[in-house]
Amino acid sequence: MKLNERSVAHYATCDSPPDKTGFLYKKGERNTAYHRRWFILKGNMLFYFEDRLSREPIGVIVLEGCTVELCESVEEFAFAIKFDCARARVYKMAAESQAGMESWVKALSRASFSYMRLVVQELERQLEDMQEAGAAAALQGRPRSGRKPLQQGNRPKATVPAGLAGPARSHHEEILLLPGNSKENGVAWSKPAALPNGYEGPPPSQASEHGANGPPPVPPRRRGTSALSTSSLENPVSPGTGCFARLHEWYGKEVADLRQEWLQSQ
Predict the structure, then answer these.
(1) Confidence of residue 8 (pLDDT cuts 50, 70, 90)
(2) Lowest mean pLDDT segment, chosen from 68-72, 151-155, 222-226
(3) E strand residue ranges, the chain
(4) Which of 1, 25, 103, 261 has the most CB atoms around its CB within 10 Å?
(5) DSSP 88
(6) What is the strand order of the sheet 78-83 is part of?
(7) For the residues 214-224, what does the mean pLDDT come to?
(8) Closest by alpha carbon to 81, among 65, 57, 97?
(9) Does 146 have pLDDT greater than 70?
(10) Contact 176, 188 (CB under 8 A)
């Protein structure tokens, strides 16, 4: 790999923040002794200087296609940077402490772009799994469209007015609230059972009108004027007998008079 010397030197000393800095002991290629150098890690490039105040680096190591592992050496806390290609140089270094060695090994192992590529792929896979799980949870928790019709047992029932007490309460009309397909005024009235003999309370329709919780009664349908005409209840012979009791009394008297005339004729 060919690098521009000025560009590399500028990148090593520019104001961009480094990933890690510190002193390490580096074993020379020709002089096998360990020399104390100042190291700066930026991205996948490891620069080393003769001392901390040096303006230009004396070397650079490109951390691609390599492994960082511990090694045996005369120096304590030593590790090596090894490359996969043949005849590649092995860089041996040593830290000043156990914590420093572990910190440098971890930083150098994560500096390559190949490692970052694996991390990005793993994060993308986790993101896809989370998105799929969130979409599945949203589909399961989404409410169904439309309202479920009320069943017969779930329909609310109107309370029986307080005016109907005792046995007459069982004969009160049962009101079922319909969801919207009612026939008259939004309620359906079932046919009331016959009232028992001797019941003196108000009719169910009147009782529901005065009840605190009862709904208003359904107005009766209009009938023809001929059915409500009072003239149909009057006797053509004896007008003014619109009341049923008076009409019944008049017909009873007429029948009694006819029977008496028949007996006399015999």
Answers:
(1) confident
(2) 222-226
(3) 20-27, 34-42, 45-49, 59-62, 66-70, 78-83, 91-94, 175-177, 187-189
(4) 25
(5) P
(6) 59-62, 45-49, 34-42, 20-27, 91-94, 78-83, 66-70
(7) 57
(8) 65
(9) no
(10) yes
Structure tokens at 227: 């059915």
Pairing of strands 34-42, 59-62: unpaired
For 179, the token pair is 């969801």
> Among 95-99, 150-154, 230-234, which is the least confidently predicted range?
230-234
Residue 223: pLDDT band (50, 70, 90) is: low
| 199: Cβ contacts below 8 Å, ≥ 6 apart | 167, 168
For residues 235, 236, 240, 244, the Cα torsion angle rounded to the nearest 10 degrees is 10
Distance CA 102, CA 105 (A): 5
CA distance 13 to 21: 12
Whether 42 contacts 18, CB under 8 Å: yes
- Written as one letter, the residue type at 61 is I
Count CB atoms within 10 A of the CB of residue 173.
19
Instruction: For residue 167, give Cα distances in angstroms to 36, 94, 205, 214, 215.
Output: 109, 103, 17, 19, 21
Amino acid at 149: P
- Provide the pLDDT confidence category of residue 152 given band limits of 50, 70 and 90: low
- What's the whole-number average pLDDT of the chain? 74
% of the chain with per-residue pLDDT over 90: 34
Could you give the C-alpha distances from 73 to 4, 83, 93, in angstroms and in order? 34, 19, 9
**Separation between Cα atoms, residue 187 and residue 165, nearest integer Å:** 23
